[in-house]
UniProtKB/TrEMBL annotation:
<keyword id="KW-0862">Zinc</keyword>
<keyword id="KW-0863">Zinc-finger</keyword>
<keyword id="KW-0812">Transmembrane</keyword>
<dbReference type="Pfam" id="PF06839">
    <property type="entry name" value="Zn_ribbon_GRF"/>
</dbReference>
<keyword id="KW-1133">Transmembrane helix</keyword>
<protein>
    <recommendedName>
        <fullName>GRF-type domain-containing protein</fullName>
    </recommendedName>
</protein>
<dbReference type="InterPro" id="IPR010666">
    <property type="entry name" value="Znf_GRF"/>
</dbReference>
<dbReference type="GO" id="GO:0008270">
    <property type="term" value="F:zinc ion binding"/>
</dbReference>
<feature type="domain" description="GRF-type">
    <location>
        <begin position="21"/>
        <end position="62"/>
    </location>
</feature>
<keyword id="KW-0472">Membrane</keyword>
<keyword id="KW-0479">Metal-binding</keyword>
<feature type="transmembrane region" description="Helical">
    <location>
        <begin position="103"/>
        <end position="121"/>
    </location>
</feature>
């Protein structure tokens, strides 16, 4: 179960219920947008911020699948971070290999030029 302070800060108003709360204000229904209770509906005092009482009640029961999905999402995010780090290492290795290949190409060209130079002087 979540608490009202986290849920009310990230919710959408979806109308009155006809009920009244502790202070006599009309109870309003909201939908939680928190990561721990996404889409879960709740009731709270419909008074203004300065005149709102502490009334809070969940409309929807806690869904057992949500904690499991949150855990899976955490594992996927961890795997994503690990794969991002691996990709960074691979990119750095590729840069090094390309640099080495360019050095080898340069050396091969120099060898060909030296060989051609010796062949020209051999014919003289």
């Amino acid at each position: 179960m979540g608490d009202s302070s986290n849920s009310t800060g990230r919710s959408n108003w979806s109308g009155g219920t006809g009920r009244t709360c502790y202070c006599g204000s009309i109870v309003r229904m909201f939908t939680s947008k928190t990561p721990t209770n996404p889409g879960r509906r709740f009731l709270r005092c419909g008074g203004t911020h300065g005149q709102r009482c502490s009334f809070f009640e969940w409309v929807d029961h806690e869904v057992a699948i949500i904690p499991g999905l949150l855990q899976r999402m955490k594992h996927v995010e961890e795997e994503n971070m690990r794969l991002s780090a691996s990709l960074l290492e691979i990119r750095e290795s590729l840069k090094s290999l390309v640099s080495n290949l360019n050095i080898i190409k340069t050396c091969a060209i120099i060898c060909l030029l030296i060989t051609a130079w010796f062949m020209v002087f051999k014919q003289m």
